[in-house]
Amino acid sequence: MAEKVLVLAEVRDGELRNVSFETIAAGRKIAGDNEVVALLCGDQVSDFSERLIHHGADRVLLAEHSDLKNYTTDAYKQVILQVLDEESPDALLIPHTSPGKDVAPRIAAKLNSGMVSDAVDLEVAGDEVIFTRPIYSGKAFEKQSVTSGLLFATLRPNNIQPLEEDPSRSGETSQVSVELKDLRTVVKEVVKKTSGGVDLAEANVIIAGGRGVKSEEGFKPLYELADVLGGAVGASRGACDAEYCDYSLQIGQTGKVVTPDLYIAVGISGAIQHLAGMSNSKVIVAINKDAEAPIFDVADYSLTGDLFDIVPLLTEEFKKEMAGA
């Protein structure tokens, strides 16, 4: 068991991301009864410290600075390295999100440390922590462990179950003295192309459209179904290339990798590049008029027919079910 585990919590759009709780749960599993310390970077983020403690952190370190409001490589790297030097943890866990994927290898390189990337599970066997991570675009899995030095890993969102929130837990919150030097990048403003809604990377339900939706207008039924199910809308690269939607919705080998509880693929043929981004979803439903579409090979439930008939019917049926629940 590690005596001290440092985990990086993450705030996005003024909200604490669920992957923060997942990472704490992983840290708790590694630390056992020992200490789990959460590091939270941002601007005016002290209100989130209590929730991190309620979800399993023993201490919360707040690194607050106006230049930390939006992620930049230099700023976050400096803060994490500073805290690692001050805290000397046995393990460091970082969410495998866009910021995490950017900063983690830079930290590893600076420390000359090994790192397990994109872990979807972990188990503790005596003094050894064994991580499971996908390889070959999700077609196989491998086990990895860190044999010496800092136990360092990034964790894919939506794979590790967070601990139940316990309002009775108490812990210490303290400020980190932040000294940011020689920042090469400062974010002044973030302009989004997509509308607000459920974060695609953390969504439990995803409705994804492909070339079969035929147009930007064809995505409207998908958004309606997503609204009913409290989910997010994604897309294949083909739909993005055809300019039916923005590339921020792209799921696949060159887009986002998602693992929702329910993935509904609408008008998606099932190219291997797309399957690499969603094949580990817990339940996959495929809707396609081509009965030979490769997507049916990985689907748990298959619906053959015109998506413009099927999706509105599903939306109406789910509305009835949700109303009667």
Automatic annotation (TrEMBL):
Q: Which UniProt keywords apply?
A: Electron transport, FAD, Flavoprotein, Transport
Q: Which SUPFAM superfamilies match?
A: Adenine nucleotide alpha hydrolases-like, DHS-like NAD/FAD-binding domain
Q: Output the GO biological process annotations, alphabetical, semicolon-separated.
A: fatty acid beta-oxidation using acyl-CoA dehydrogenase
Q: Residues that bind FAD, according to the entry?
A: 211, 236-237, 250-254, 267-274, 288
User: Keyword Ion transport: yes or no?
Assistant: no
Statement: the UniProt record of this protein carries the keyword Transport: yes
In terms of superkingdom, the source organism counts as Bacteria
Protein name stated in the entry: Electron transfer flavoprotein alpha subunit
InterPro entries per record: DHS-like_NAD/FAD-binding_dom, ETF_a/b_N, ETF_a/FixB, ETF_alpha_N, ETF_asu_C, ETF_asu_C_CS, Rossmann-like_a/b/a_fold
Gene3D superfamilies given for it?
HUPs, TPP-binding domain
Cofactor names: FAD
Q: Which family does it belong to?
A: Belongs to the ETF alpha-subunit/FixB family.
Electron transfer flavoprotein alpha/beta-subunit N-terminal domain mapped to chain residues: 5-189
Q: How is the cofactor bound?
A: Binds 1 FAD per dimer.
